[in-house]
From TrEMBL:
This is Pyruvate, phosphate dikinase. Belongs to the PEP-utilizing enzyme family. It catalyses: pyruvate + phosphate + ATP = phosphoenolpyruvate + AMP + diphosphate + H(+). Residues 26-394 form the Pyruvate phosphate dikinase AMP/ATP-binding domain. The active site is at H493, C868. Its EC number is 2.7.9.1. Residues 914-942 are annotated as: Disordered. Mg(2+) binds at E782, D806. Substrate binds at R599, R655, E782, G803, T804, N805, D806. Residues 461-541 form the PEP-utilising enzyme mobile domain. InterPro entries: ATP_grasp_subdomain_1, PEP-util_enz_mobile_dom, PEP_util_AS, PEP_util_C, PEP_util_CS, Phosphohistidine_dom_sf, PPDK_AMP/ATP-bd, Pyruvate_phosphate_dikinase.
Length: 942
């Protein structure tokens, strides 16, 4: 620890000077770094100091006593520094300095310690403050706030649950009743004195100790409480959700108090340099006169608007007349014009300086403005896009910077219907599941897919509620507004399919009890029947009671501009995974440059098709299969025509039949009977067949190209349908570019045999039609062996598409459908950081991908390579795909814009990293040269 002694642990700021600056967020936390920076650029900030995040880490290692011993001299010196600027003394009875203690991590973190204000007060100091300010009410109001905050935050008296009432609030409520008043501001000085007395009594009762009167004891207690809060349950949980490492620690900011509660010439507020909801370049915010700290957000009093225009807009919404507004709720612009002008200048200065929208806190003490915080403001997806594009237009950002400013995943908000914001606050939350597929849905509960179809046909809006879903539910899912399941994770069938459809889905809502027979859904003992209205928020996982109005997403012009800009910089193209003309069209509208995965199996579930499919599967021999395939051929051909047409002039990768056949056969008695009748065989025979097809491990069983290689006639029919469809369109002058993809290849021979079937079929069709088209034959790389022998596979395959869903499954050895049982435990124990089915595991699976690309291209340098797993729409995975040199990524239609932005960012980040490494390289070269010079000089000396 010798080293730590010389380390600087405390950084002061004040009087437009600071030891730290904005670049030191890691050490000083976001709040501390910005308080320092504001001083440096000449913004008025009350003086104070920041205890570094490193001290927090030490605290967790060595404990309280050791840490206090370590930093005490620096803290004492820093307090002296503040005393000097303020002209008062900490613990001075006549002229006491009061402080605030504020937490502040690198990233702003809800769940961390609440701020303690007015620290340093005790029975003597309060009298001096009263005398000095000539405002007894203010002094006692500050004191009762301090005892409450200290009791809640430092002494742990704040109840853990929001539902439980705070002991201090309870005392205040009693007091109000006794006095027959309603507002905090109505307390008299005598009332406030009485409150302090009762508060202290409550402290003694709960903690067994008197309320600490020694300011230093108060200060150390508060500082340590901030460190403790870093490890509290809420903070730990939040860090886990947001991948914030525990080692980061939080900083502590100690700052001289400024008082917004000194009367009519004082106040406090928050403001945004632009509109955080819409992104409009309009300064806005709220404030309260004669108030302190969090009163504005606490909702005790109605806050007033900062600008006159904002105030007028507010009055309209709140149904307040202009006369009442101007007299009772004037804007800061009207009430304190000089202060407003100063604030307006400062907000501009801060935004210009940080080159981003700022979220500000300020306090006015007796006619003087003080800034207490600035940070990059949180914003909606729409605001994010608008602000970035506006700042580009305004010349504040370069194109590359504007692109990097937008978080790809956040674009999602712009792509789905959303709840009306006021309606949703009034709704009752019934349950919470996983936010499986974003968007908002409201509809009547149905439990069966076919019921969903029937209800929708009759003009109802439905939410499909299932224990879990399967491919048979596809049509019902498609017509439903949203999908709710009791089981299954973020990559469950319901979740994946819903995201593909761009449909709202909440999955794995554990406390749902679904009774299919009785058609009821029980949540916490309350029964909901078929036809009852519920609403889902797929972005948060919340399930609401009743109907909530939704709004269509607004795709503003800026969004389109951002996408164009992204395409200007990205090297990879973005394709889509789509199985229908409608999805293809949606994706095309979102800028997809082709289809990277068209699954053919989904086409077999629609309407009567499943019967022909089942007939094919249940047939006893090739002849029987061919008979059924003949029925399927025109259907498939027509489907392909539809998709090729929607995607004309762009490539469409069609994957041949992939899933285990068992997924298609009838499992219910009634369907089995129907099939038996259709095929002229006995029900027993059907049952036997279904039984025979069952596999112990279907995902590793008879599927993928194993089907096409054991039943070549299936591949033959599909190849024919594809080629014929393309030729039919050619006749109409529409250009189709099919890329035929063989699934689940593991050996070169498997691939070659399939290639042969496809090419021979194509030649046959060309001969029949006396007409040709261009097409490719390639494969999905989704079995680890295929990645390992990719150089061999590329002898036959003209393109690779990494099927990273299966590749992840087989590399980890996790069954995707069963992983939900252990993955949550794995995150909790830190065994895994994220779901590898959502975020590509670059360390492991990524190696196979990289190797597959390299080896494939070693055989075939122009090999076209893409990805078609769920990862194709996940930003960090897209970046990885870029780094291994893929030609494209393919993702569900609603993720296309996200992937387009991520692909552009990948290029920009790569360039930046390259430039940086070049810089250090030349630096290293230079220092080597210097070293050489030094050596020569040394030699000369000798
Ligand atoms: P949070 O991170 O929750 O916003 P803050 O530390 O910013 O917590 O503080 C909470 C409230 O207390 C804010 O309204 C802030 O402006 C106010 N506050 C903090 N320090 C001071 C101070 N020195 N003087 C006056 N008000 C303060
Ligand atoms: Mg704050
Ligand atoms: Mg697969």
């Amino acid at each position: 620890m010798a080293k730590e002694k010389t380390r600087k642990s405390v950084y002061t700021f004040g009087n437009k000077k600071a030891e730290g600056d904005a670049s030191m967020k890691n050490l000083l936390g976001g709040k501390g770094a910005n308080l320092a920076e504001m001083n440096l650029i000449g913004v008025p900030v009350p003086p104070g100091f920041t205890i570094t995040t490193e001290v927090c880490t030490d605290y967790n290692k060595y404990g309280r006593e050791k840490v206090v011993e370590m930093i005490r001299p620096e803290v004492e010196a820093a307090v002296k520094y503040v005393e000097k600027i303020m002209g008062s003394g900490f613990g001075d009875k006549k002229n006491p300095l009061l402080l605030s203690v504020r937490s502040g991590a690198r990233a702003s973190m809800p769940g961390m310690m609440d701020t303690v204000l007015n620290l340093g007060l005790n029975d003597e100091a309060v009298e001096s403050i009263a005398k000095k300010s000539g405002n007894e009410r203010f002094a006692w109001d500050s004191y009762r706030r301090f005892v409450q905050m200290f009791g809640d935050v430092v002494l742990g008296m704040k109840p853990a649950s929001k539902e439980d009432i705070d002991p201090f609030e309870e005392i205040m409520e009693h007091m109000k009743e006794e006095k027959g008043i309603h507002l905090d501001t109505e307390f008299t000085v005598a009332d406030l004195k009485e409150l302090v007395k009762r508060f202290k009594k409550a402290v003694k009762k709960v903690t067994g100790h008197d309320f600490p009167t020694d300011p230093w004891e108060q200060l150390w207690g508060s500082v340590m409480a901030v460190f403790d809060s870093w490890m509290n349950e809420r903070a730990v949980y939040y860090r886990k959700l947001n991948n914030i490492p525990a080692e980061w620690g939080t900083a502590v900011n100690v700052q001289a108090m400024v008082f917004g509660n000194m009367g009519q010439n004082s106040g406090t507020g928050v403001a945004f340099t632009r509109d955080a909801a819409t992104g409009e370049d309009i300064f806005n915010g709220e404030y309260l006169i004669d108030a302190q700290g969090e009163d504005v957000v606490a909702g005790i009093r109605t806050p007033q608007q900062i600008t006159k225009e904002g105030s007028k807009r507010w009055a309209k919404l709140a149904n307040v007349s202009e006369k009442e507004r101007a007299s009772k709720y004037p804007s800061l612009e009207e009430a304190m014009p000089a202060i407003y002008k100063e604030l307006l200048d400062i907000q501009q200065k801060l935004e210009d300086h940080y080159r981003d929208m700022q979220d500000l806190e300020f306090t006015i003490q007796d006619g003087k403005l003080w800034m207490l915080q600035t940070r990059n403001g949180k914003r909606t997806g729409a605001a994010m896009v608008k602000i970035a594009m506006d700042m580009l237009k305004q010349g504040i950002l370069t194109e590359k910077e504007a692109l990097l400013r937008c978080e790809p995943a956040k674009l999602d908000e712009l792509l789905h219907p959303v709840f009306d914001p006021t309606a949703v606050t009034k709704a009752k939350v019934l349950a919470k599941g996983l936010p499986a597929s974003p968007g908002a849905a409201t509809g009547q509960v149905v439990f069966h897919a076919d019921e969903a179809e029937k209800w929708v046909e009759k003009g109802h809006k439905v939410v499909l509620v299932r224990i879990e879903t399967s491919p048979e539910d596809l049509k019902g899912m498609n017509v439903a507004e949203g999908i709710l399941t009791a089981r299954g994770g973020m990559t469950s069938h319901a979740a994946v399919v819903a995201r593909g459809m761009g449909k709202c889905c909440v999955s794995g809502a554990g406390n749902l009890k679904i009774d299919y027979k009785a058609r009821t859904l029980t949540i916490d003992g309350v029964k909901h029947k078929e036809g009852d209205w519920i609403s889902l928020n797929g972005s948060t996982g919340e399930v609401y009671d009743g109907k909530i109005e939704t709004r269509d997403p607004e795709l503003s012009g800026d969004f389109g501009k951002l996408m164009k800009l992204a395409d200007k910089y990205s090297r990879m193209l973005v394709r889509t995974n789509a199985d229908t003309p409608r999805d293809s069209q949606v994706a095309r509208n979102f800028g997809a440059k082709g289809i990277g995965l068209c699954r053919t199996e989904h086409m077999f579930f629609e309407g009567d098709r499943i019967k022909a499919m089942r007939e094919m599967i249940l047939a006893n021999d090739e002849e029987g299969r061919r008979k059924a395939l003949k029925k399927l051929l025109p259907i498939q051909r027509a489907d392909f025509e539809g998709i090729f047409e929607a995607m004309q002039d762009l490539p469409v990768t069609v994957r041949l039949l992939d899933p285990p056949l068992h997924e298609f056969v009838p499992h219910e008695e009634a369907n089995q009977k129907e099939m038996a009748k259709e095929m002229g065989i006995s029900v027993e025979e059907v049952k036997q067949k279904v039984h025979d097809l069952a596999e112990f491990n279907p995902m590793l069983g008879h599927r993928g190209c194993r089907l096409g290689n054991t039943y070549p006639e299936i591949s033959e029919m599909q190849a024919r349908a594809i080629i014929e469809a393309a030729l039919n369109l050619k006749k109409k002058g529409i250009k189709a570019i099919p890329e035929i993809m063989i699934p689940l290849t593991g050996t070169l021979e498997e691939m070659k045999l399939q290639e042969k079937i496809v090419r021979e079929t194509a030649e046959k069709v060309f001969a029949e039609r006396k007409e040709k088209i261009d097409y490719l034959v390639g494969t999905m790389i989704e079995i680890p062996r295929a990645a390992l022998i990719a150089d061999r596979i590329a002898e036959s395959a003209e393109f690779f598409s990494f099927g990273t869903n299966d590749l992840t499954q087989m590399t980890f050895g996790y069954s995707r459908d069963d992983a939900g049982k252990f993955l949550p435990v794995y995150y909790e124990k830190g065994i895994l950081k994220h779901d590898p089915f959502q975020i590509l595991d670059q360390e492991g699976v990524g190696q196979l991908v990289r190797m597959g690309v390299e080896r494939g291209r070693s055989t075939r340098p122009n090999l076209k390579v893409g990805i078609c797993g769920e990862h194709g729409g996940e930003p960090s995975s897209v970046e990885f795909c870029h780094s291994v040199g893929m030609n494209y990524v393919s993702c569900s239609p609603y993720r296309v814009p996200i992937a387009r932005l991520a692909a552009a960012q990948a290029v920009i980040k790569e360039e930046a990293a390259l430039a940086k490494s070049k810089k250090t390289e030349t630096k290293a070269k230079k220092s080597k040269k210097d070293e050489g010079k030094g050596k020569k000089a040394a030699k000369k000396k000798k």
